């Protein structure tokens, strides 16, 4: 294998051989990664061969190879190798004008430690103070990263910003708890308490110092990149800081979204960020500004819903959801679909406080009350409803929650509860119980109910918890027979049992018409025999036998009537 790869590298040394050469290096990278060959020897062989390489695919593959070197445990014993490859990556960043090469080199750099990266940082990216200082290169001031951004080729500025995002992410992930402990009652106005080589400190200093000067500056794009870097969601919030200065920037269209993202990511720990966001949300409620202002709040809802109180969020959610629903009804669907995407992410997040989830559920429920079950809007909202807190689903779909059960309401309740059961593996069939209690009183809904129940039974036919539910159903049927309940109630429950048996046995594919009880009765005996041959269903043998006899006598009695 190695011999063949070496042959490709030696022979494919022109422009036409770039792809083959790149693929060969990718193969060598995998061999190094799984320690089939030695990375130290490999690089010593490849470095002279590709010293003056300018083919873009080949350079990208070399960067990928270099990125694997710090992941190999034995390379720690070769500091000179680390210095050489990091220096090579910086060289690619400076000398090659291609954006793809710059991205590959900077991505590879993030595989190394901050100290290793800084130690080889080119003079072009250092300020005069650092160049004239005798201090070690591994303690380069964080402000040098601004010099790095300013001296980047404009075509690579976005890539350089992505690189610094990864550097900030690495720094934040290493913060200890004490970094987030504020001395006194007020948040600090700067990051002077962070180390001088902190990337976060350097970027923050630049943002605040150029707050009123960036718009007319040649470094306007650099300033916006700094805001973009701070606006990312990291593994932890940024350290404590007084974020009131964002008020000066949020009115600028180019900076607005970055400011909202920054503040939203800090609300969990920062009082100033929380006040900033509360004021912004209240301004939207009052003015109901453009769609982008609304959607940027929704994109951060999972952060805001964990810190901003319901009395602030509820008016905003009501206003924007109702407006989006009206747009949806007029064939402008995009805004509501985007809002629902963020609502579902919030409802699905277990860390979000329950009170705000309940607010969301109440607003969506009020919309559902006024729409038809056959509408596209209902189907869209249904995907959100199944993520409601359990109590909210019960309030929306329980017959006990309404004074009078009407046919249209019951159909919605059936659809909602069956949809919840479809996506719930923990005792899913229990969601059907309350519907079964009143089902016999609505014969006009029976076919619809059975169609929905059948989907649930089919989905969970291999769920062993369904056995207990069927046993409970058998017990319920035996009880209503013993109590001499109305025949329609007995038959209704028996038909559900038969339908469940057919679905769980796999004979469901033979059932074409849910309104035809006779077709279900015809399939029932074979379905029972098939089902009881399955191990976890065999415990039902006695109960099914007794029920079948009782059912036959019940049917005969009804036919005589």
TrEMBL record:
<feature type="domain" description="DUF3730">
    <location>
        <begin position="1"/>
        <end position="109"/>
    </location>
</feature>
<dbReference type="Pfam" id="PF11229">
    <property type="entry name" value="Focadhesin"/>
</dbReference>
<dbReference type="InterPro" id="IPR022542">
    <property type="entry name" value="FOCAD/RST1_DUF3730"/>
</dbReference>
<dbReference type="InterPro" id="IPR016024">
    <property type="entry name" value="ARM-type_fold"/>
</dbReference>
<protein>
    <submittedName>
        <fullName>Uncharacterized protein</fullName>
    </submittedName>
</protein>
<dbReference type="InterPro" id="IPR045163">
    <property type="entry name" value="Focadhesin/RST1"/>
</dbReference>
<dbReference type="Pfam" id="PF12530">
    <property type="entry name" value="DUF3730"/>
</dbReference>
<dbReference type="InterPro" id="IPR021392">
    <property type="entry name" value="Focadhesin_C"/>
</dbReference>
<dbReference type="GO" id="GO:0060147">
    <property type="term" value="P:regulation of post-transcriptional gene silencing"/>
</dbReference>
<feature type="domain" description="Focadhesin C-terminal">
    <location>
        <begin position="185"/>
        <end position="509"/>
    </location>
</feature>
